[in-house]
Specification:
Blueprint (H helix, E strand, L loop, with lengths): L5 E6 L4 H12 L6 E4 H6 L8 E5 L6 H8 L10 H22 L2 E2 L3 H7 L2 H10 L20 H11 L3 E6 L9 E5 L5 E9 L5 E10 L2 H11 L4 E5 L5 E2 L2 E10 L2 E10 L11 E2 L2 H10 L4 H13 L6 E8 L6 E7 L21 H29 L5
Amino acid sequence: MTAAPRLVVVGNPENRRVAFFRDAVRAAGLPEARVVPWLDVVRGTARFGAGEAVRLDSPGEHPEVDRLLRGVADPTRVEGSGRWYARFTAAVSGLAAEAAAAGAVLLDDPADLAVLFDKRLTHGLLRTAGVPVPDSPTSGPAAPAVTGWDDVRALMARDGLRRVFVKLAHGSSASGVLAVETAGTGRVQATTSVERGPDGALFNSLRVRRYTSEAEVGAIVDALAPDGLHVERWLPKAAQGGRSADLRVVVIGGRATHALVRTSRSPLTNLHLGGARGDLDAARTAVAAAGSRWADALGVCERAAAAFPGTRCVGVDLLPSTGWRRFAVGEVNAFGDLLPGLTGLPGSGAEGLDTYAAQVASLTEAHRTTRTAHTACTTRTTTGTPRS
């Protein structure tokens, strides 16, 4: 009998993400998953044991961890994502070294994470891999840095872009994202969840708002620019029920296992910003009616995930074009699996399993396969060795 892997989850102990994963481990009949707090990782006191399999979860939704990573006292502030990235990637590198020294196995590749948390690098890597992505003047490591609104305007003019998304290079959950529209008359407006205070400070808000003066839009972009910005073409999206629609597709072990339609009346479909779950069956029907194949749409997501071979689970934001005929990848999320109650797609191998149970099943199968292959290799070596 093959011994079960000793699972460790690095997360914030009180967070529901950690609870969901530990529940899935228990339901699979595996030994209790040990929790290593992100606070310990950030402070350099995390320790691991030989033979442990270490899974990373999001460090978000913890005020003290956020303060240590971003260096900002108010967790609602937008600024600090550049500092967060530098400290997060350094913490993960330290964690990886500690795990390796202890004989533990890290299930998430630090090099992958460094790319996944930089939208410019992710976009460039996907483009090089032949994955369809929106046009972008900031894609890849050689792209010009954006130092403020004047640069955004110049890049838009150079590439003939009238509508773009301006995103924090290291942002998540739509923090600091602006959907910018311009007109030939010089009119500029931006839709965003960023709230600008009287003193110019920027805050994340749960209310999507619109700024209609170039001075305001420019001031926000100028304030965000020191953290690093990514600019990409705003693709017209497909619609469902009169609302713009996209999909979050979870890929586990290289296979698209879960999919969720997200709809919104604004350009931002994030569920915490008022987006709503759409009708997946209706989306599949629309894809077929447009002469496309649902399997091809999922295939785009699997190709995006394949660009990060050291990461077992990613959440891909899939952008269907108007009419549901073509698809592009907007983002690839390292921690994009928080979709409570969503079970696996038919034929995915994850039917009846939520995203966490599917990950545990994938990890267990990978462990079993590795152990079986190792045993077979040892047996062949032993039986094939001549006696002296």
